[in-house]
Amino acid sequence: MKNTDADQDSTNVGIGERLRAERQRLGYVQADFGAAVGVSKTTQFNYEAGDRTPDARYLRKAAALGMDLLHVVTGSRDDSSADRPVRIPALEAQGRDGTAPLKEDGAPYEATGLCFSQDWLEARHLSAPQLSVVTVRGSSMESVLFDGDLVLVDQQDRRPRSGFVYVLRQGQELLVKYCQMLPAGILRVTSANPSFAAYDVDLARTPELEVIGRVVASLHEW
């Protein structure tokens, strides 16, 4: 018996839903994943909505990024792939014009991200879509974190608490600092390096400073 159009539509919807779930598991937004596999955001949206069927070229590139194609196409999983790596994207500060900051030699910083074990993330109750990798810049956190260290940031946790390290976006910089919320919306920012003085910021009057999220792990732990 030939498949009807309704059968094909139902199949595409199922593939699209699983494709969306796998893309989210890998830590990508639609536009970034589409760019990584060579399609537009609109095409990626249509695949996930079940309006179009992904072709072989697309699926091959998706598999290279860690997508479980067996699950996407059939709904089944291979037990050997239960702990497939999850890609966590890197985060770089952007200027007001939307461009990334440049290195001293004028070249842009690369933001490629890192892959983590799904089991490792789940054991720490971390959700991949809310995570980013940030590179520590400078010496303000020396003794705890050093220039070039990588940290994993939970962007759901933006309410600073004493004793934790947070990432702040300030202009074209991402700052890694100890932070503490004081009464009246005042943020106290402290460094591990005593050469850097602590300072207070009124967040309501300082829109150019934003709390990005809490540092939940560093390369010293993974």
TrEMBL record:
Coiled-coil region list: none
InterPro entries in the record: Cro/C1-type_HTH, Lambda_DNA-bd_dom_sf, LexA-like, LexA/Signal_pep-like_sf, Peptidase_S24_S26A/B/C
Pfam families noted in UniProt: Peptidase_S24 (PF00717)
Keyword Ion transport: no
CDD domains the record matches: HTH_XRE, S24_LexA-like
Entry keyword Plastid: no
Domain of life: Bacteria
Keywords: DNA-binding, Transcription, Transcription regulation
Domain HTH cro/C1-type residues, every copy: 19-72
SMART domains to which the protein is assigned, alphabetical: HTH_XRE (SM00530)
Name of protein: LexA family transcriptional regulator
Organism: Roseateles flavus
